[in-house]
Amino acid sequence: MGNRSQTLLLLAIAIFGIANAVSIPRTPRPNTRNTNVPMNFTADIILRDGYLLEQHQVTTADGYVLTMFRIPGSPANPAVQGKNVAFLMHGLLSSSADYVISGPGRALAYMLVDAGYDVWLGNARGNTNSRRHIFHDPDARNTDFWDFSWHEIGYFDLPAMIDYTLAHTGHTTLHYAGHSQGTTSFFVMASTRPDYNKKIRSMHALAPVAFMSNLRSPFVRAFAPFVNQLEWIMSMLGVNEFLPSNDMMIMGGQRLCEDESPFQEVCANVLFLIGGFNSPQLNRTMIPALLENAPAGASVNQLVHYAQGYNSGNFRQYDFGLTLNLIRYGSIRPPDYPLHRVTAPVALHFSDNDWLAAVEDVRQLHSHLSNSIGLFRVSDPRWNHLDFVWGIDANTFLYERVISFMDRYN
């Protein structure tokens, strides 16, 4: 890694607050629009933009309480029974806000609502919308709340949210779109719980992440060789949550990254360091809002699990070490996910400049899928990993195509 990348990596650590291990509760903002809807960053955006909003909660089989947001319509597209359902799932360190933050006409959730869909936004365990459990306290030291990776998100969270959505709407199938970890967790669900394949009308993988041997992000490559030490150190310190979102980070993001700040370009470069450089597609005025939503919190084990995948070259379950692997899996190595059991129609949307979902890795994933809709490259050669949700022109480069495929499978 060159001097420039090393410098940017240090800036990333400083700005995103990896050293900040203690979460400071966010001060709630007053709800001046609808007293029946608790204030939340995603809800605030949806209400501000004039769309209809419902908030729903579901409890997983292992006790996590997850929040979902439903956008059943807008003033131009009223809520009616029987609309086709689209379920959207966010990536690592993000939340449902990713799908509305770009605003009407640009954000995928709004474009789907405007196209006549009943849109549901999921939130994985551990992010700012889903920090509850029937027993465990996420803020307690050495709590079991954070004892999960994206395997549990796929095995427990997605089925719980999908079942709730279908039961509430009266449908038997829905369309699924996920970004990054939202694709990883889908492939976990569809391969380990194959009965859910029949509930998916079409799946759209935006920057799909399963195999990771060829990723280029120095952010991941820097800590992957030390992942076992990182896991041990964090465990010994009783630090289980990675990059908690709090008032200190929000204030830092607003002051360092606002339009008048001389550090705004540094903030942009930090984002580029993670997912790839594409300056024309980043709305710099939006950076403070992005940092208010992200990082939205995650388990350390989620990052460890990804680093294990990069090190091993396999898409497989969490590696607990030789002894625990023998107890849990009956083998010294964790089993690969049986991707041949994924039978839902899957469209893989990828790009040449994605530093986290390399073209070679996406093609390897595609070779394991028996019912692929196809591989679809974003035409912008500079399109990066975060452009799939935050890119200025994501509506024309990507979302129109996704919606057209959904329409085709209705």
Description:
- Helix 7 (227-237) packs antiparallel against helix 11 (300-312) and helix 8 runs antiparallel to helix 10 (287-293).
- Helix 5 (181-192) links the parallel strand 6 (174-179) and strand 7.
- The strands form two sheets. Strands 1, 2, 3, 4, 5, 6, 7, 10 and 11 form a nine-stranded mixed beta sheet that branches. Strands 8-9 form a two-stranded antiparallel ribbon.
- The protein starts with a helix and ends with a helix.
- It is 38% helix and 13% strand.
- The radius of gyration is 20 Å and the shape is globular.
- The longest helix has 20 residues, at 150-169.
- The model is unreliable at 1-39 (pLDDT under 50).
- With 410 residues, the protein is α/β, with parallel strands linked by helices.
Summarize the helices and strands and which ones pair or pack.
Layout: H1 3-16, H2 41-48, E1 54-59, E2 64-71, E3 85-89, H3 108-114, E4 118-121, E5 132-133, H4 150-169, E6 174-179, H5 181-192, E7 200-206, H6 218-223, H7 227-237, E8 241-242, H8 247-257, H9 264-275, H10 287-293, E9 298-299, H11 300-312, H12 322-329, E10 346-350, H13 359-367, E11 372-377, H14 387-390, H15 394-408
Parallel strand pairs: 3-4, 3-6, 6-7, 7-10, 10-11
Antiparallel strand pairs: 1-2, 2-4, 2-5, 8-9
What Rg, in angstroms, do the CA atoms define?
20 Å
Oligomer kind: single chain
Structural class: alpha/beta
Give the tally of β-strands. Answer: 11
Order of helices and strands: HHEEEHEEHEHEHHEHHHEHHEHEHH
Largest sheet: 9 strands, mixed
Range of strand content: 5-15%
- The mean pLDDT is 86
Amount of helix = 25-40%
The low-confidence runs, each spanning 5 or more residues with pLDDT under 50, are 1-39
Count of individual helical segments: 15
User: What shape does the CA trace take?
Assistant: globular
- N- to C-terminal distance: 47 Å
